[in-house]
Amino acid sequence: QVQLVESGGGLVQPGGSLRLSCAVSGFTFSNYAMTWYRQAPGKERELVASITTGGITDYVDSVKGRFTISRDNAKNTLYLQMNNLKHEDTAVYYCKTLTRPYWGPGTQVTVSL
């Protein structure tokens, strides 16, 4: 079965950092471009970052310079390093394959004093 499971979310102060992980199974991870999405209450789902099979990355403007997407194909794991977190980063974060509708259940990130 296809499975994507996010972890690493939690409560962090503004300016703090978190690293999210997405452990995948049930498909050949190295053959798929991967993405991170987020959704805040009352807002539309937003594509945050993507990484190709060759390691090329892209980011939404609001997180450029703060977030880094990476992958470890040997571990079948996708990462999102989030630095200098802001209140507006508060959302549920999801990992997803770029070209297939495979989603994880999400992990909550809350940035608050």
Secondary structure layout:
Blueprint: E1 3-7, E2 10-12, E3 18-25, E4 34-39, E5 46-51, E6 57-59, E7 67-72, E8 77-82, E9 91-97, E10 107-111
Parallel strand pairs: 2-10
Antiparallel strand pairs: 1-3, 3-8, 4-5, 4-9, 5-6, 7-8, 9-10
Fill in the keyword field for this structure.
0% helix, 113 residues, 49% strand
Radius of gyration: 13 Å
Oligomer: single chain
* Proportion of strand residues: over 45%
Question: How many angstroms does the end-to-end distance come to?
Answer: 40 Å
Strand order of the largest sheet: 2-10-9-4-5-6
State the total count of DSSP E strands: 10
**Helical stretch count?**
0
Poorly predicted segments:
none
Helix amount: under 10%
Principal-axis shape equals globular
Largest sheet: 6 strands, mixed
Write the element-wise H/E pattern from the N-terminal end onward. Answer: EEEEEEEEEE
Q: Give the integer mean of the pLDDT values.
A: 97
Describe this protein's structure.
Helix content is 0%, strand content 49%. It has strands at 3-7, 10-12, 18-25, 34-39, 46-51, 57-59, 67-72, 77-82, 91-97, 107-111. It has a 6-stranded mixed sheet, with no helix packed on it. A 4-stranded antiparallel sheet has the order 1-3-8-7, with no helix packed on it. A hairpin with a 6-residue loop joins β4 and β5. It is globular and about 40 Å long. 29% of the residues are buried. The mean pLDDT is 97.
